[in-house]
Design a protein that fits this description.
The complex is a heterodimer of chains A (about 100) and B (about 300).
Chain A: E1 9-15, E2 22-29, H1 33-45, E3 52-57
Antiparallel strand pairs in A: 1-2, 1-3
Chain B: H1 3-11, H2 24-49, H3 58-85, H4 89-97, H5 114-134, H6 141-169, H7 173-193, H8 204-209, H9 217-234, E1 245-247, E2 252-254, H10 270-285, H11 287-293
Antiparallel strand pairs in B: 1-2
Classes of the chains: A alpha+beta (about 100), B mainly alpha (about 300).
Chain lengths: ~100, ~300
């Protein structure tokens, strides 16, 4: 059974310095992970230097959709998620009980 | 997604990502521009690669090999951007092999001397940095991110070119003459590289409305002159345009127009035909490697 085109795309993540987060830098095309890693090293690790590289088959990534973006924004309506914040930072009508300690 | 909501997204400076919905007009404009850039990186590596055996020292040879590898690497990165926009890699390569691809036509020219290799880095890549630096703000996310890496590496190419030219300029009279002769061609090539005047540019308006292009051709040419006229003078070279003048009141340069039609027939140049033949041959001879490492017949178990 042959792979589909989509399955030959590998996303590349790079750790610039040990201790820093892996960052998505781009993608490469390859039939297998070893060659994908080699291509990623040549494309993304050669000039700038880095601590480590990951390659992940794109078809193995589960992702959110564009429409879901709004769900992730911090809402003023949900101040209960930020307990103990000073009262002056709260706005009227944000659903918080004003008799509570202002922390 | 409606055209209005897409435009609102652009107006809010939100980047467009590959999985986002986008109008066909946007996708096509992005594809045309990015295919042009990707093809330029790939095709542009060939004339320089031709000079590797003629590098005057081991040091210069290693520098040039590294540069050629960078350019091919940029081609790899941008080819992925192009693929995600909907043009397959096979189609992209086939367009180059069929001589249908569009790219900077300066890469069809013959590179006649070692000074030309310095000039493409110093002036050519120097000019490209001006443009690509602004494209870090382009609205298509993967392309804008690629620009950060590409501009970082183009800066090496600029400095290797400058170093090569500066070394020749400290050499014999014959070497200085070679540089001036080369510069007399590359001045006009650099001026043409930014494209036709804004009033004549077919795609500029659409690209700028979509924030795919950030500064206009004439704006970029002006930025280039701001930076390079002093550098050229410092290098001890004479600019082959007697009319060049800075207009204080307008804050821009007056210059003689390069012949914008000069590259219309670049496909018929013997240097282009020779490189095309080389590309077709190596595509065929290296086919077995491609089949082995890339797409074909890779068992699912791997």
């Amino acid at each position: 059974m042959e792979r589909t085109k989509e399955e030959t795309i590998f996303e590349v993540f790079r750790m610039d310095k040990r201790g820093t987060p892996y960052t998505h830098v781009g993608s490469v095309v390859s039939g297998d992970p070893d060659i994908a890693l080699l291509t990623a090293q040549e494309c993304y690790g050669r000039r700038e230097g880095c601590a480590a590289i990951w390659v992940v088959r794109r078809s193995n990534i589960t992702m959110t959709t564009e429409e879901m973006e709004d769900e992730f924004t911090v809402s003023r309506e949900k101040m209960y998620r930020l307990p103990g914040l000073r009262k002056k930072k709260r706005k009227k009508g944000d659903g918080n009980d004003s008799s509570e300690s202002t922390g | 997604m409606t055209v209005e909501s897409f435009e609102a997204k652009l107006a809010a400076d939100k980047k467009i990502e590959p999985n986002d919905e986008m109008p066909d007009e946007y996708r096509n404009a992005a594809l045309r521009m990015m295919k042009f850039h990707a093809s330029s990186e790939i095709v542009g590596a060939i004339p320089e690669a031709e000079w590797i055996p003629y590098a005057p020292s081991l040091f210069r040879k290693r520098v040039l090999i590294a540069k050629v590898q960078d350019e091919v690497g940029h081609g790899q990165i941008l080819m992925r951007v192009v693929e995600d926009l909907g043009c397959s890699r096979e189609q992209f390569i086939q367009d180059i092999l069929d001589d249908k691809a569009k790219y900077l036509t300066v890469f069809d020219e013959e590179y006649e001397s070692w000074a030309d290799i310095g000039m493409i880095g110093w002036l050519g890549d120097g000019a490209e940095i001006e443009r690509q630096h602004t494209l870090k703000d382009a609205s298509y996310g993967p392309y804008a991110r690629a620009m950060h890496k590409i501009v970082y590496e183009e800066a090496f190419h600029y400095s290797q070119g400058r170093d090569l030219i500066a070394t020749l300029m400290q050499g014999t009279k014959a070497q200085r003459d070679m540089v001036q002769e080369s510069f007399n061609k590359w001045w006009w090539r650099a001026m043409v590289l930014f494209g036709p005047h804004d009033s004549e540019s077919t795609h500029s308006k659409v690209l700028m409305n979509f924030k795919l292009k950030i500064k206009s051709n004439d704006e970029l040419r002006n930025l280039f002159l701001n930076k390079f006229v002093p550098r050229i003078k410092k290098m001890g070279l004479e600019i082959p345009d007697q009319t060049l003048q800075y207009d204080e009141s307008k804050g821009s340069w007056k210059y003689k127009d390069p012949d914008f039609t000069i590259y219309k027939n670049s496909k018929s140049l013997p240097s282009h035909q020779r490189r095309l033949k080389f590309l077709r041959q190596s595509y065929e001879t290296n086919g077995w490697v491609r089949r082995l490492v890339e797409l074909d017949n890779i068992p699912k178990a791997l």
